[in-house]
Specification:
The chain has 95 residues and is an alpha+beta fold. The protein has 3 helices and 7 strands, in the order E-H-E-E-H-H-E-E-E-E. Helix content is 25%, strand content 29%. The mean pLDDT is 91.
Length: 95
């Protein structure tokens, strides 16, 4: 199963890539895809992606699956299927 991941803003800078193709063994959920990305890319990428206090990417990241934000789907339990496109958009919280 292959999923395309598009990285914008700081995520592109930290990973050195604007697009990734992730091979997954079987259909999975967004939470598992986020964990795989956090493990496979740099520690700085993980720090930018996942809020350390909540262990959740949503405070830092707008996540789209096939153009729909995951909050209107099933959040981190949104199923990811072969050929899906996931877009990670950083959310800035600087005042």
């Amino acid at each position: 199963m292959n999923v395309k991941v598009k990285l914008l803003g700081v995520f592109r800078g930290l990973s050195g890539k604007s697009r990734l193709s992730i091979e997954l063994g079987e259909p999975t959920v967004m939470r598992k895809l986020v964990e795989k990305l956090a493990e496979s890319l740099s520690p700085k990428f993980k720090q930018a992606l996942v809020d350390p206090e909540l262990d959740d990417p949503r405070p830092n990241t707008l996540i789209l699956v096939n153009g729909r934000e995951i909050s209107v789907l099933h959040g981190l339990e949104t199923e990811i299927c072969d050929g899906d496109e996931v877009v990670l958009i950083p959310v800035s919280h600087r005042g």
